[in-house]
Amino acid sequence: QVQLVESGGGLVQTGDSLRLSCSASGRTDSLYAMGWFRQPPGKEREFVAGVFWSDGNAYYGDSVKGRFTISGDNAKNTVSLQMNNLKPEDTAVYYCALRSTPMYHPPTYADAYDYWGQGTQVTISS
């Protein structure tokens, strides 16, 4: 089993930056990808960013490209999401996710992940 704990959420203003972190513990010997998803109020969960642990290849949702950066720390089994130039439409609960088995397609969909964190609220005021 793997446990994921997110941190770093909060309330900021439009144009501000925020950094989310996710720490993985437990059976992290099989870690192939980690990612971030978000669920805005009243909407479905959507892909934000994902990264392959082996080579660091990263993928982003169209709405965050150029503003968000995902990065992983292999030694600490943590993944971070640097969010810049935040907009009100970025308001959502942000979830960290982990895939524990090999995959060869971009980890850009929710079903690709085996474990999920509890989520952290990010609110952007206009």
Description of the molecule:
It is a single chain. The N and C termini lie far apart (40 Å). The chain is globular and about 40 Å long. Helices cover 0% and strands 51% of the residues. It has 126 residues and is mainly beta. It has no helices and 11 strands.
Summary tags:
7-stranded mixed β-sheet; mainly beta; 126 residues; 51% strand
Beta-strand percentage? over 45%
Order of helices and strands: EEEEEEEEEEE
Report the span from N to C terminus: 40 Å
Number of distinct helices: 0
Mean pLDDT: 95
Helix-strand category: mainly beta
The count of DSSP E runs of length 2 or more, i.e. the number of strands, is: 11
Instruction: Give the overall shape, derived from the CA principal axes.
Output: globular
- The helical percent reads under 10%
Rg: 14 Å
Main β-sheet, in a few words? 7 strands, mixed
Poorly predicted regions are none
- Oligomeric nature of the chains: single chain
Topology:
Blueprint: E1 2-7, E2 10-13, E3 18-26, E4 33-39, E5 46-52, E6 58-60, E7 68-73, E8 78-83, E9 92-99, E10 115-116, E11 120-125
Parallel strand pairs: 2-11
Antiparallel strand pairs: 1-3, 3-8, 4-5, 4-9, 5-6, 7-8, 9-10, 9-11
